[in-house]
User: Fold this.
Amino acid sequence: MEQNKSLLWPQGILIALLALGATLSIAVIMLLRPNASEAQSNQRININNNLVAKVGTQKRIEGLKAAMLTSWQQEAQAKGLGYTLAKRFQGAVIKEAKLSPNQKVIALTFDDGPWPESTAQVLEILKQNNIKATFFVVGQNVKNYPDLLKRVSTEGHVIANHTWHHWYHFMNQQAAAYEIEHTTDMIYQITGVKTNLFRPPGGIMHNGVATYAKNAKYAIVMWSSDSIDYSQPTVPKLIDNVFRLAKPGGIVLMHDGGGNRSRTVQALPEIINRFRKQGYRFVTIPELLEMEDKAQSVIAKKK
Assistant:
């Protein structure tokens, strides 16, 4: 009997220890639960703070963009890059200006830019010669090279619309509207200039795009003198192409984008030099149309 009692004591101690351990475990869990809850709460607060910070940053970015656009628009207006198109040219197709032979002006135009290297090279030549030209730009190139377009504008050249994709195929009214208006909007967003000058890719007048542009009161600007530089002629041939049909009030078609334009860049200084030797001065398309408008108004008054 005494022997059995001695065996019960260690068992009682073991049970007591187990009970004490369980109690301590419950206490520890109870202590830790508030800390875990507090950690989760802090995590939620941090997430909310991050979201607020991101929203605030986005608002600041949008505000900065708006301020920059306003600045560019004011700069464009201050430089006189905005222009008014006379009613007679709205929706009209223009190949040249109707001027007297003694009004020896010519408009240089460049299509398919902005384009890496060649657009900057053309701009540099024009700057050295103090000439302003008209650039018919492709919307997707404007999107890809906005800094080049900004340079075209800030250096005083006129920017005009040459569709978004430079496609030739037929388009319905909705597709044509996108091609033209999306490009016009992109030009405006980057430069602050709202253009109403349009040139159809390839000079195609019957694929829906030109029709939309006419109905939207864009001036459809074609050309009277084609360099045919897109076919990569030799530099002397390219120059001859320009002068073959050149005359006062003419519009010269060249390209600063859409491919390798190194020959256009090489020919441009000689083209400028030869026109000047013949007594020409260089104007933009809006200036050319303004000259015609004044000349036609004078003729109308004399009748």
Remarks:
- Residues 1-20, 22-37 have pLDDT under 50 and may be disordered.
- DSSP finds nine helices and nine strands in the chain.
- The beta strands are 93-94, 105-113, 134-137, 158-161, 197-198, 219-221, 225-226, 250-255, 281-283.
- Residues 10 and 16 are 10 Å apart (CA to CA).
